[in-house]
Every structure is written in C-alpha cells, then in structure tokens.
Design a protein that fits this description.
Elements (H helix, E strand, L loop, with lengths): L1 H22 L12 H5 L3 H6 L12 H30 L3 H7 L1 E4 L8 E6 L2 E7 L2 H8 L12 H4 L5 E5 L10 E4 L4 E4 L4 E3 L5 E3 L11 E3 L4 E4 L1
Antiparallel strand pairs: 1-10, 2-3, 3-4, 5-6, 6-7, 7-8, 9-10
C-alpha cells in the first residue's frame, strides 16, 4: 500500500516535468519569424533573392541612362551624316574630274612624222602624225603573225593620226617613241617592242598599246574621252 501511494505521488511529478520541457522551445531549433508588418513593407523581389537592388525609377540611375541614350543618338546622327555626304559626293563629280573626263586636241599643229604626248585621266596619251610610208608599213603587216591581232584600220580612225595610251601593257611603264626594232615604241623596263601602229611585236607585253575612246569633231580637232 505504501509503495502504491509512493508511485502515485511520483507519477504526477514526472508528468509535470515532462510537460514543462515540451512546452519550452529548444534553443537550437528556434526560428525567429518576422512580424507581418515588417514583411509587408519590403518588396517581394527583395524578399526572394535577398540582394540589394535599385528600385524602379531610382534617381541615381537616371544620369547614366541619359548619357547612354544621348551617346547612341549622337553616334547614329554622325553615321547618317557621313553616309549622306558619301552618296552625294559620288553622285556629283567635281569640276576637276569633269575636266579630265575628256580633252580636246588640235592635231593640225603636230608636224608630220612627229609624236606629241598629252595627259588624259592621269595617263599619257601618244598622238603621232604618221607619214605615208609609215601608213603603208603598218597596213602591210600580216596580222596572223601578231600576238594581239588587230589591223591598222581597227586602231586608227584616220590613217595619218595614231592615238593610243602611252602605257606598256606589261607592267605599266611609259614606252619611248621612235625606238625599238620596228621603229615604233620601245619599253625600256623589260624590252617590249611595238610597231608603228602600236602593236606588240616582241618582248613580254601581252597586248597592243590601248586605244582610248575618241572622235574627230573636225578635220583638225579630236576629242579624247
């Protein structure tokens, strides 16, 4: 009976202590929960990622944004101006370019058997007033034997005047007149020989001396270009 009474007295005391322990929050498992009023004042994106960000429309970012936008507009306007000027410059040729596009020459002042050299588009142009013997010699050549086959009539609109560019077709040197093995033109750079019609006869040049576009506006005047 005494044991039973002692056990009955101990049981309530143990239960009370266990209840007290369960009611006390454990120090290691305690989580501080912020109040709702504190969370409601913080934007949602800051609650989720917990990093410091500028809020939309922050005044500290406006000068940088204005700088970027202004620089982009300035660059675009500058590029547009350059593009427009380039188009205009290509469409309207200058007076110097128009002057060099064609040149008029009075060939009546060239003595028979002599050459003159003029400048056209930055290149030398040979004009020779040929003799009757030279015309006959040029016409008697068998074109089948030529490297670049052209008749003299194809190269000279008027037999007594031969007009061609003074630029060797090998590497662009200027040939010498009244020289070479064919009494025409000789290129001293690499030894190309041209006849009295400006046709390549010997040496490394692959083509005849080029004939520029021209027309006689009168018996004594020729327009080149």
């Amino acid at each position: 009976l005494r044991l039973a009474r002692a056990a009955g007295a101990i049981k309530p005391s143990v239960n009370a202590r266990v209840g007290a322990l369960l009611a006390r929050p454990h120090a290691t498992n305690a989580v501080a929960t912020p109040a709702y009023s504190e969370l409601s004042s913080v934007p949602l994106y800051q609650q989720e990622k917990k990093i410091e960000r500028f809020t939309p429309g922050d005044e500290n970012r406006r000068p940088f944004a204005y700088l970027v936008i202004g620089s982009a507009r300035f660059a675009y306007m500058a590029w547009t101006r350059v593009a427009v000027l380039k188009v205009i410059s290509t469409m309207s040729a200058s007076a110097d370019v128009l002057a060099l596009a064609s040149v008029e020459v009075d060939v009546s002042s060239i003595p028979v058997g002599q050459n003159v050299t003029i400048k056209w588009r930055g290149k030398p142009v040979f004009i020779r007033h040929r003799t009757a013997a030279e015309i006959a010699e040029a016409g008697a050549v068998n074109i089948s034997e030529l490297r670049h086959q052209e008749t003299d009539a194809q190269r000279a609109q008027k037999p007594n005047f031969l007009i061609m560019l003074g630029v060797c077709t090998h590497l662009g040197c200027v040939p010498l007149g009244n020289a070479g093995d064919y009494n025409g033109w000789f290129c001293p750079c690499h030894g190309s020989h041209y006849d009295i019609s400006g046709r390549i006869r010997k040496g490394p040049a692959p083509l005849n001396l080029e004939v520029p576009p021209y027309k006689f506006t009168s018996d004594s005047t020729v327009l080149i270009g």
